[in-house]
């Protein structure tokens, strides 16, 4: 950026539904942004009230899927960039400074951010949860999300993906009950996507794929570094790989 150029602006966007537990602490770490937008899917708790009290703009939009919601949020802003943050994430000062610096360049239309994930209260550095890069900083008008990828969204843009160095703090899965509830939801989404693509499970998928997932998580992605915690998470993810194929089979049977 030259001295004659106007600094590019950033809107920090938080997608919410009943996030009264997290929204205040999240928004406080986003005070550096030019605008803070809480893009809410009609919460029934105090999420909206708390967000407005902290000076954030609130827009409400019916939730269809994660990609649709993020694309709708991109369309609702007037800034040059959008930085997506989940309500259970926090932005340290070092990351905020790095985001502001990246937004002043044309190096990339989308930047990914690494995350420090706290699962069951423990910082988790193996089994695929670190560095856990997430595409979060988007140049408005030059990027978006694949509308066909309804969960675990995929960014759409031209050029290469940039990578920032400082981590988001993610208070992920406070309890095992929350973990299992979300994994069941995710596996159902994944099964739906595979079903729409015409994929049907084969008998070997129920055994070989979960075993491969466990090996990938515990060995290749170094879940062993987290000891029993990593072993537990790797086993859970292997089971949910099996569960995805079970759900896919159920959808195929129902379609008949």
Summarize the topology.
Blueprint: E1 10-16, H1 23-28, E2 35-40, H2 47-53, E3 57-60, H3 66-75, E4 81-86, E5 89-90, H4 93-102, E6 110-113, E7 115-119, E8 122-123, E9 134-139, E10 143-145, E11 155-157, E12 162-163, E13 168-172, H5 176-196, H6 205-220, H7 227-255
Parallel strand pairs: 1-2, 1-4, 2-3, 6-12, 7-13
Antiparallel strand pairs: 4-9, 5-13, 6-9, 7-8, 10-11
Which descriptors apply to this entry?
256 residues, alpha/beta, 13 strands, 7 helices, Spore Coat Polysaccharide Biosynthesis Protein SpsA, Chain A
Short description:
This protein is an alpha/beta fold and 256 residues long.
Radius of gyration: 19 Å
Widest sheet: strand order? 3-2-1-4-9-6-12
* Termini Cα gap: 59 Å
Unreliable stretches: none
Biggest beta sheet attributes: 7 strands, mixed
Share of helix, binned: 25-40%
Which structural class best describes the helix and strand composition? Answer: alpha/beta
The number of distinct structural domains comes to: 2
Beta-strand percent range: 15-25%
Per the principal axes of the C-alpha atoms, what is the gross shape? globular
CATH architectural grouping of the largest domain: Alpha-Beta Complex
Number of β-strand runs: 13
| CATH class designation of the largest domain | Alpha Beta
Series of H and E elements:
EHEHEHEEHEEEEEEEEHHH
- Count the DSSP helices: 7
CATH fold assignment of the largest domain: Spore Coat Polysaccharide Biosynthesis Protein SpsA, Chain A
Mean pLDDT: 95
